[in-house]
Amino acid sequence: MKLRKMLAVLLCGALLCSAAGCALKPASGSDAQMKASAGSGESGSGAKRDGSAADPGSASGSAEQPEEKNPVPVGEKYMAITFDDGPTGNTGGRTERLLDGLKERGVHATFFLCGYRVKDFNSMMNRYLAEGHEVGNHTMDHLRLDTEVSDGGLKQVGDNNDLIASYTGQKPTVMRPTGGAYNDTVIASMKQLGMPIILWNLDTVDWKYRDASSVKQHILDGAQDGAIVLEHDLYETTVEGVLAAIDELQAQGYAFVTVSELAKLKGVTLEPGVVYTDFTEETLHPASAQQTEAGSGTASAAE
């Protein structure tokens, strides 16, 4: 009997062990991979399935580049509008209205300032460079450098450079002599100051006619790729006429830039003491321009 009981106990224990062993199932290959993945942190790393958030190179690569402040206007043809003898008026004055109109149209211009006027009208001085314009030097007292001073403008222009820089933080790099008049002494002085002499090839004679429609028509009639236009921000008729002309010429594909921007666009390096009237094809490449005109003349005759 004792032997039977012992055998029965042993048999029950064997059966229980067998049942427990059958319940322990080894992990399959797929289960092992899932556990390995969980252990590696792939699913808990915060990365998206496409890897975009987890890829620092991708994140930095997609960062937008900062926009260039006041980029050079782009067009099919280019002109430089310039204004002499300003500024005119302080807040609410003529120069402010002109600056507002140019800003609205995305236009860059060059302002040749007189020092004696900067002293009186300087509330707009912080706007010129900030809005993409160029500030040029038109002497301190609007004197004729070829006849009224003996140093060729060395002091007139030098002192005005310092005055303008005190308001803008930057000395002008271009100058225009009063009346466009210069001689060898003026050239030598400007070379010493490191300043090119900027004249013009399109004069609206706005100071004489003081008529908005006349200003506008002069610009439209003389419009040409590479031209430099002479204006004065002294008259209301000039402000009105030049803005009207800009509207029409922009519709024709023109963009308006500063003198220095125009020179760069045309591949010209402005040099101290050198006189520039424009950057048109006829001026920059006279031989090729003449050949083009001759060829078109022959074609016209053949027709």
Q: Could you describe the 3D structure shown?
A:
The chain is α/β, with parallel strands linked by helices and 303 residues long. The protein has a domain at 77-288: TIM Barrel (Alpha-Beta Barrel), CATH 3.20.20. Helices cover 47% and strands 11% of the residues. The chain has 13 helices and 8 strands. It has helices at residues 2-23, 29-40, 56-61, 94-105, 115-120, 154-168, 184-193, 206-209, 212-222, 236-251, 259-265, 281-284, 286-302, and strands spanning 77-86, 110-113, 134-137, 197-198, 202-203, 227-232, 254-257, 275-276. The strands form 2 sheets. Strands 1, 2, 3, 5, 6 and 7 form a 6-stranded parallel beta sheet that branches. A two-stranded parallel ribbon has the order 4-8. Strand 2 (110-113), helix 5 and strand 3 form a beta-alpha-beta unit. Helix 4 packs parallel to helix 10 and helix 9 (212-222) runs parallel beside helix 10. The chain starts with a helix and ends with a helix.
Please outline the helices and strands:
Elements: H1 2-23, H2 29-40, H3 56-61, E1 77-86, H4 94-105, E2 110-113, H5 115-120, E3 134-137, H6 154-168, H7 184-193, E4 197-198, E5 202-203, H8 206-209, H9 212-222, E6 227-232, H10 236-251, E7 254-257, H11 259-265, E8 275-276, H12 281-284, H13 286-302
Parallel strand pairs: 1-2, 1-6, 1-7, 2-3, 4-8, 5-6
Helix pairs in contact: 4-10, 9-10
